[in-house]
């Protein structure tokens, strides 16, 4: 059984750290139950082997600065999309709270993109595009707040398109 095979957990770690597979995919590919993979990852961390830090280090050592920054921005865009979706779909959250959360999220996104743009001329184009979108978001919130939620729903997939075109 793969779960009792330490070599299988090592293979999961390798796929997670070096191939950048999600933990669920790495575990499935090596016949390790996801619970076992999570426990192995947690156990390794308590023993001083943080798989997430190893993954970040592996990324940094194998790519150019543009590739590293692009991966960071890509990860941030993915997280941004997930959070935007959670906020807009949360039926227990008041509209004004959603707008505030989305505004805060947009600000964080803009800062991340701007920082990446300063570090990489290629990503500077992405920074400009995202600043323009942020300005549009502020305009919508200030002048047309009744459309803020609709704008947020459009912004989520549009942000991914901007990242593809400019990132």
Q: What is the CA-atom radius of gyration, in angstroms?
A: 19 Å
Multimerization status: single chain
Helix content: over 70%
Strand fraction band?
A: under 5%
> How confident is the prediction overall: mean pLDDT?
81
Low-confidence stretches: none
Layout of SSEs?
Layout: H1 6-17, H2 23-29, H3 34-46, H4 51-62, H5 65-89, H6 95-119, H7 121-143, H8 148-166
Helix pairs in contact: 1-2, 2-3, 5-6, 5-8, 6-7, 7-8
Structure in words:
This protein has 167 residues and is mainly α. It contains 8 helices and no strands. The radius of gyration is 19 Å and the shape is globular. It starts with 5 loop residues before the first helix and ends with a helix. The relative contact order is 0.09.
Quick synopsis:
The chain has 167 residues and is mainly alpha-helical. Helices cover 81% and strands 0% of the residues. 23% of the residues are buried.
Notable traits:
single chain, 167 residues, mainly alpha, 8 helices, 81% helix, 0% strand, globular
